[in-house]
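Structure in, sequence out. Go:
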């Protein structure tokens, strides 16, 4: 099962350039979270700070009760064993086969026999759908396969926390859907805490239990997906709708004159372009494939949302209730379909 990651007052700069400041959030145990934001807002920097590759100027990162910003190098080494990381490009060794790439963490950090290594590697290879390709070199396979190989490598040490840096980068929509489904299936199987760093709207709307957004060097919001998907916060609403009108500009932040002109155009009913999807309904979250375990994170997440429901704006409450009713209806249909299949299976006669 995953562990909680609690970030408080985190501030990071490179020289005089401030990347983000005073970021506080908690990645709930075993749930899937997504961190969004326009390009250049420091999402990947945040991920590297969580595993101690970059050191913040202020704040704390508490992983399983240990503040990695204050611990010793030895303690940090042990804490990092809790993490599995999928980097943007897969970060595979080009001269090694996929098998050796995936086996690398086991050979580097454990004393397992080669027979044990092979058993674990082949289990992960099968999990990510790469059976038959394990002897290929990274340069001989597609980008989507390299992503899956990188994910398999991130899983070999049975991490309790999985960090994914733009898993959709360079992939077409179909391969992105496969990777997204794989993350949900993995969460159902091992109940790991997962953080996905992305700017993909479809991933944000269908995969995570929780969503956060970085903008103007700050964390604008972080919370249950249902809250952000129904939010009236201008930055969140513009980003998720893919709309040109709003605070986000080509170079991140628009000046006041441009923002005022666009506000006047919007008031006059002039379209701002972009997708401008309707968010009065919450799109159904991706579910584990048939045969997978029940995703415990979804149960915990729903309980938390129900507890906080009365504190949310009316439109959010209505959208969440409608979404939950639709989920319950789908679950009832699936149970009925499964029961009908069982009823039609003949009972063998002794």
């Amino acid at each position: 099962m995953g562990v909680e990651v609690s970030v408080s007052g985190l501030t990071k700069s490179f020289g005089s350039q401030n990347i983000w400041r005073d970021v506080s959030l908690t990645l709930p145990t075993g749930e899937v979270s997504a961190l969004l934001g326009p390009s250049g807002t420091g999402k990947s920097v945040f991920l590297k700070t969580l595993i101690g590759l970059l050191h913040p100027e202020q704040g704390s990162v508490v992983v399983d009760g240990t503040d990695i910003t204050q611990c010793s190098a030895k303690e940090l080494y042990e804490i990092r064993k809790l993490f599995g990381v999928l980097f943007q490009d897969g970060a595979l060794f080009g001269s090694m086969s996929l098998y050796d790439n995936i086996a690398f963490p086991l050979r580097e950090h454990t004393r397992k026999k080669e027979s044990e290594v092979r058993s674990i590697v082949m289990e992960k290879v099968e999990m990510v759908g790469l059976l038959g390709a394990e002897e290929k070199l990274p340069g001989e396979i597609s980008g989507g396969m390299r992503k899956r190989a990188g994910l398999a490598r991130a899983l070999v040490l049975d991490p309790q926390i999985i960090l994914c840096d733009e898993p959709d980068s360079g992939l077409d929509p179909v391969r992105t859907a496969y990777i997204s489904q794989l993350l949900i299936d993995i969460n159902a199987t091992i109940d790991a805490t997962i953080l996905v760093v992305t700017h993909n709207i479809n991933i944000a709307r269908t995969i995570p239990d929780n969503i956060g957004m970085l903008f103007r060097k700050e964390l604008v919001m972080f919370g249950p997906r249902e809250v952000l998907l129904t939010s009236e916060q201008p930055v969140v609403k513009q980003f998720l709708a893919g709309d040109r009108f709003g605070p986000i500009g080509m170079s991140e932040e628009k000046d006041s004159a441009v923002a005022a002109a666009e506000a006047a155009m919007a008031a006059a009913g002039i379209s701002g372009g972009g997708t401008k999807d309707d968010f009065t309904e919450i799109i159904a979250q991706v579910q584990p494939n048939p045969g997978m375990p029940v995703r415990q994170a979804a149960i915990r997440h729903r309980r938390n949302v129900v507890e906080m429901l009365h504190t949310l704006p009316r439109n959010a409450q209505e959208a969440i209730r409608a979404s939950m009713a639709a989920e319950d209806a789908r679950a009832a249909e699936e149970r009925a379909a499964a029961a009908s299949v069982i009823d039609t299976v003949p009972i063998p006669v002794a």
